[in-house]
Amino acid sequence: MAHAEFADSGADLELRGITKRFPGFTAIENLNLTIPAGSFFALLGPSGCGKTTTLRLVAGLENPTEGRILLGGDDVTDTKPHQRPVNTVFQSYALFPHMTVLENVAFGLKRRGIGDAEAKAHEALRLVELDHLAARKPAQLSGGQQQRVALARAVVNRPALLLLDEPLGALDLKLRRSMQLELKHIQGEVGLTFLHVTHDQEEAMTMADTVAVMHRGRIEQMGAPEELYELPRTSFVASFLGQSNLLTGPVVSSTATTVMVEAGGQRIEVLRSRAQRHSGTVTIGVRPEKLLLHTAEPARTAGANILGPGRVTDVSFSGVSTSYTVTVPGIDPLVVFAQNMVSGPVVHEGARVWVSWAMEHGFGLADGPDGADKGAGADTVAPAEGVGADTAPAGQQSGAA
Ligand SMILES: Nc1ncnc2c1ncn2[C@@H]1O[C@H](COP(=O)(O)OP(=O)(O)OP(=O)(O)O)[C@@H](O)[C@H]1O
Ligand SMILES: [Mg+2]
């Protein structure tokens, strides 16, 4: 193997009851987290939710107010940053401008008196496919290439844990996508533990084995990307990770396997096993791509939910799919994504339609739509003191985003 140099595997990272208080503000509240060795873990959340603070605590750049940090089973809470087997790639990757690419990558090894520094640096540069530019200065590279040099510089130290804080933030969409695949590939080859911070949900889902959705200093839900997407537990997760249509109402009946909710005069069923709550007021969610549009009232069949009639109030073409907004009296506007299998929209604005979906595609949330803050601008609604106060801004709409 060409990359045998990097065959060392990563270490488990364990955060036990971590709280971080800044004067007058609790940034992290009782965070418990285990990231198994060799996994690619993404911490996803809106601006200000505590992602960078978490990385800084792990790197040793901040001290927790409470709690312990363990790496590979060793308690590193009281050790200095340079004593931790951790490397960080920050968003601003600050390469040394007067050094060549090779010298930049070899710098850390040389400073630590490690032999074969240049050979190891070449090896790391081959990994990021930049060895042919080893003699250049950073200013002679594109932004994406500089980003890859920064990555090589971190990987060459073979840290047991690599922390990545929005490392692709500066790149254009296309380069970002290709770097995501490349990073994932590198992680697979070197087998290190990656902790990747991002506010880009697509990036988190594409890259990570496990995604933790963070909200106001707490992890709201954690799991494999498909699991989080298919079965979000809270309105925040349902709306931050992709889009959701949310319908709220009282439970009017239930069976051993289903729960029925009435919302705006319409009855909707959800599988009991996919609902966090089974009585009282329940919010049911369903993803826009799971909805079907009908121009005639569909026959009522068991296991299908039908809403309507309503009107198509917006049609937005976005390339692969078309997004329809459907307004049904009594409920929030519904968003329907339809793949562009035919040219032109399936229905036009103003059309009278029904919307249906299979009951097994719905999910029942643990909270109401008021808990949602849509992700964007969470920094503006975070309470001045303490985290987790369930005070969402007024006027938040569920459903259409
Ligand atoms: N030194 C500090 N003193 C006081 N508050 C701080 C300090 N550092 C961070 N904070 C606050 O802690 C919260 C979390 O900050 P953090 O940098 O972890 O957010 P983030 O999730 O990385 O956000 P972004 O996506 O914008 O980078 C923010 O509300 C921030 O204002
Ligand atoms: Mg940050």
Indicate how many domains the architecture comprises: 2
Q: What is the CATH architecture descriptor of the largest domain?
A: 3-Layer(aba) Sandwich
Spans with pLDDT under 50 lasting ≥5 residues? 1-7, 372-401
- How many helix segments? 9
* Widest sheet, order of strands: 6-7-8-3-9-10
| Main beta-sheet strand count, sense and barrel state | 6 strands, mixed
Query: What is the average of the pLDDT values?
Result: 86
Radius of gyration (Å): 24 Å
CATH top level label of the largest domain: Alpha Beta
Strand proportion: 25-35%
- The portion of residues assigned to helices is 10-25%
Number of strands: 20
Question: Which terms summarize this structure?
Answer:
single chain, 401 residues, alpha+beta, Rossmann fold, OB fold (Dihydrolipoamide Acetyltransferase, E2P), 6-stranded mixed β-sheet, 5-stranded antiparallel β-sheet, 20 strands, 21% helix, elongated, disordered N terminus, binds adenosine-5'-triphosphate, binds magnesium ion, EC 7.6.2.11
